[in-house]
Amino acid sequence: MKVSNLPSSDFDHYLKNYLEKVPDLSLLESLDYSKNKVIQFYKELPSDKEVYRYTEGKWTPKEILLHLIDTERIFCGRALRFARNDKTVLPGYDHEDFVKESDANDRMLENLLEEYIAQRKSSRLLFKSFSQPTLEKIGNANNLMVSVGAIGLVISGHELHHLQILNERYL
After folding, report:
1. What residues make up the domain containing 49?
2. How far apart are CA 103 and CA 122, in angstroms?
3. Domain containing 165 — which CATH number?
4. Contacts of 156 (CB under 8 A, 6+ apart)
5. Domain count of the chain?
6. Coiled-coil regions in this chain (predicted)?
């Protein structure tokens, strides 16, 4: 499954911004692509920028990394439930509260990257396990209709969105 193969009925218009950032790669390739970009960014990040905020109230690079991890976990949970034909309308989550309660800035960047890599390995295995018909199943998360496959691609697009901001405003 690639972004170019996604019917518009597979995702809510709100998610289009993220999907447009994903290169025309397969779902698994896109997860690898964005993972490599994230790791490269954080390995090259100067240590004095780890807790930098470009303006008051904005997240630090460490907080952004943990936000990516948290979001991926939540999105994988949604994908699994939709893949297993759960018709429950899944609630959203307040990413601001998640970041505020994360203590990301008190953690070592190396530890956050280790957690990120472990989560991505798990996510990749999850999406690899889904058949094409399963990737096409649609569910409702936060009142947005989205397919299982689109969720995987949105994970990559969400990361690329944040990497763009990190490169433009933090370096």
Report:
1. 3-169
2. 23
3. 1.20.120.450
4. 21, 22, 30, 31, 33, 34
5. 1
6. none
